[in-house]
Amino acid sequence: MSRKYAWIGMMLIAVMALAACADGGGSKKNGTETKQNPADKAVNLTWVGWTGSDKPSDVIIGDMISKWNSANPKAKVTWLGWPWDQTLQQIMVRNTSKQDMDIGQTEFGWLKSLVEANAIVDVSGLVGQDWLTANFEQSSLGVGQVDGKQYGIPWTMSATSMMFNPTLLEAAGVTRAPTTIAEFEAALQKLKDYDKEIIPYGALTKSASASNDIQVWLWAFGGGVFDASGEVIINNEAGLRTLNWYKQLLDKGYIRMDIARNDARQLFVQGKMGFYEDAILAKGLALSGGVAEADLPKRIQPIPRPVLNAGDTPRDKMWGHVLVVFKNSPNQQKAADFIKHVVGKESSLDYFARGGLLPTMKGAIAAEPVQQDPIAQKWLEITKTSRAGDTEAYSEKAALDNIIVEEFQAALLNSKAPQKALDDAASRIKAALKK
Amino acid sequence: MRTVKSRTSGLTESQFGFLLVVPAIAVFAVVMLYPFVSSIVMSFTNRSLLLPGQSFTGLDNYRDLLADPNFLGVFYNTIVFVVAGTFFPFVLGLIWSIVLQQGFKGSSFLRSLTLVNWVLPGTAIGFLWMWVFQGNYGIVNGMLTSLGLIDQHINWLGSTEYAMLVVTVAATWKGIPWFMAFLFGGLLSIPREHIEAARIDGAGNWTVFSRVVYPALKPVMIIVILLGAIGNLQLFDLFWVMTEGGPARATTTLAVEVYRSAFREWNLGKAAAIGVVWVVLLSAFAFFYLRGMRDEVK
User: Fold this and answer.
1) Residue B246 lies in domain
2) Please, which residues 123-162 of chain B have a Cβ atom closer than 8 Å to chain A?
3) From the CA of A416, how many Å to the nearest CA of chain B?
């Protein structure tokens, strides 16, 4: 075969291939002129997230969608989900390639990245500012805001609180929940003395999500990742004190390495762990894990995080999910209407009753089932002094969390001296933000 | 060159042949060539999942990699895993293929059973071995404790000393059937008469292996070692499921680092640069593989 033919053919194919890919791989419906469909035209909406793919909440989400689809046959919603730890990257990739996404479930901490990626829109114009202020507390709306704009509508929120197993602690001789770090350590020692097989405290020591809990302990010791002006302070004296305290917990056998959130949840439900940190969904997980509703108060009790000095204000991290509308959606108004349906009183109280997650609308929070639930009330109380994590203000959150956990692990495993690990964390954080 | 023309189409034989390969070339260009070239170009840009566009940054991504004090560790972890994760399944696969080749009763069943490891998805294997080596309730700790070999549980995946070892064990378990299948095929191609003749001459097991089996099996061994090393260089699922590259980066390999750069830092330019370094490393193996293939054809 002639070389000339081969080269000409290959060049033609390469040009065709590059041309085909250059338009974004067959993107759909972008541009402002196609943003709204005529009211009478049937449309399909895609809701992305993770809760609808998880057991047992998939059934609850499925019911929410079914109710909407029955009432809105011309704007049917379809669920598209991934595991929680893959959801943000899937959204980012789909946004880049302009694939179908209308409504999204995200964490508070992901909003900054999504705004920076130009993926989501300010929803206040779609749902109406009056509707927002009439139905939500200002503090609730705040978790869905970036730079003063309302990008997310709060769906559920509470704090990632410390919780304990009252039955286990009582058996170990701990008569009341610890309020200070000294009392907390004493309780851990009693648990260890009671049964060596029990892990006294399920502090997360694996995967980047451990950073969320580390940040709250940094606050408890008077430190943080950043100060108010955004300067990195993780390697200051309070940071060193926090890391040394973590190391001491490990050396004394109060915490273990290789504990991820799911490990902690399972061990806690099985009665093999005294304390761990989780959001209010822990209640639903305990129920689905075989704990009878009547036994819940004996198996799971949320408490404010122990403080360094008696009288200090306990600090916990705000946790929750918001619903967003994607910029590439051609059906933004319908998507916003669907969000109203999901966060509405009927849907959110059903979610609370079956999944244990707190609602966000004033009317739903004031409803009897929420007000009469002692565990929910404790969580609501703890949430009052909670705030967003330090790294959540940055679109590089995932990278920063990874750095913090890696350096803490290095110190815990004696690969680095604590001060060196914190100094490395500080310089890596600065470098990551400089990019 | 032959220029015989078809009676019906008027095309020469070479033109007709070219038309036949056009679909394959088109698929290659779209599926492999374009992404590859695109990745190389991307490695010289600041492309990010957070930014709509990209700009040319020259060698900045490569400079950042070289300046990163952790990158050498990533390289070291990768080499350690590729060597250990190829050597152990190769040796065990070779031993197992020799055992199965003896043709005892039930050997066919055992051969099929061995392949189960290979059929299972990497994520399932990862979870299986995580459970086996779980620091708190894993069966390895349970066995060692009941045998009196340890008095305190070892946190296998939570320690920088053992985490890579555990992933290597999982990769070895997964890889044995693959090596076994290739080597078993190679063993079958060795004429039985050669082995029997050596036996008649008084050769023992080791002599038969070193003088008859090994020389005949050597080309297959080289190919499977190279392919196994390439596969291990690309391995991601076991690492991510079992350790996420931790603790303290003890199991962060190039594959994990590419994923982290792209989907944790959103830095596609850096991820592409690591990918290019990775391809250079892979090319060394690919070169020896292709040379081995060429020699075999000759």
Assistant:
1) 69-297
2) 135-136, 155-160
3) 10
